[in-house]
Amino acid sequence: MSLDDAEGVISPEEMQTIKQSLENESLNSAAEKIQKYFDQLDKTVLNMAVTGVSGKGKSTFINTIRGLGDEEEASAPTGETETTMDATPYSHPKFPNIKLWDLPGIGTEKFRPDQYLEQVGFQRYDFFIIISSERFTCNDANLAREIHKMGKHFYFARSKVDESLRAKAVRKNDYNETSTLKLIREDCITGLQKLGVESPRVFLISSFDPEKYDFTLLQEEMEKDLPQEKRHVFLLALPNITESVYQKKKKALQSDIWRVALLSGAAAAVPITGLGFAVDVKVLKREISKYYRAFGLDKASLRSLADRVKVPVEELRKVTKSGIKEDLTDEIVIKMLTKVAGGGLMASKGVASMLPLFGSLASGGIAFCTSYCVLKSCLEELAEDANLVLLRAFPNEAPKGKCV
Ligand SMILES: Nc1nc2c(ncn2[C@@H]2O[C@H](COP(=O)(O)OP(=O)(O)OP(=O)(O)O)[C@@H](O)[C@H]2O)c(=O)[nH]1
Ligand SMILES: [Mg+2]
Fold it and tell me: I want to staple 236 with a disulfide (CB 3.0 to 4.6 A). Which of 133, 196, 230, 294 is the partner?
């Protein structure tokens, strides 16, 4: 959808939700409740623990989830020698409420199996990822049991699958990727069963190729197991490795559009010259910036992608339909609002039918509808742009091929 075409933008279900939220409420008190909802969302913290024996790929996995390479300034150090000695939190660079904890390997002299969870402060974590690049050990199995007893989720991730496949391919003439993956999985599962873990599930991953194997599946499982309020935060922070991640992000952001639109037209909104209604541009700008970050189109993400693929950042910007700028300014947002307000959109059926909800506050309704259209078209365009940028960055791979 473009800014020029917003017919039927509000679905009947959404209309119902908005009606309910405005029923028996003034615009201001509805906005107050919405503000509380966003404040709560901002405060939602997610702590993911990544554990396993030294050298199995914990820190590399963390960097991949954070959308970083190994060599970046904010990356968790990785390497062949033992590098993780204490529980170390790494905030997600774009969504700092998400923390990935790089835990030291269990079973070293400093971290004894029977005291491990206590020592690493198990209460703070929402879930655990137990990583191994071979069979899982007795320590891994014991750890899983203890985590389960505490009522928390854990996931077994078999890392470095790319390496294992490569090694097999060199050694075997009749090499077949699917059957090799099956063998690796079965080997891990029987190993864990022998160690007394009931119906274990193992995710085969490569942090170097997160778009392949079970990386996406693992993310989906983690998302499913999270309580609703944490799911939203988690989703936005996921690396953009598949089309389905984009779609989920888009859906999550879409569900908040009416709230942001209502908030931007309420309380402290400032009239904008030439528009004839009041909008809080900051509220819109904050939300659109969130879209940029979620889709990897913010300044830092684009720079880092450009560096990685050795393409000038301007080349990446050039392929976008929205013509994303280095910085999102108030002026850019006002331009979008003006375009929508002047484009005759208010006459469109879906949007116009919202106006009576605002009663005597007709300008509140117009502000709402205009902001709604701006956010919706921005979201659509940026989701599409993210794909275009990936195509430019990795011309020889499918758009879902790499993460931003
Ligand atoms: N091929 C391949 N190598 C990987 C993968 N993940 C990690 N490695 C390599 O394995 C080595 C160890 O990875 P780290 O992430 O430092 O392992 P760690 O578990 O954090 O190790 P400690 O900090 O010592 O506990 C590094 O050389 C990584 O580049 C992967 O998915 N594929
Ligand atoms: Mg490490």
Answer: 294
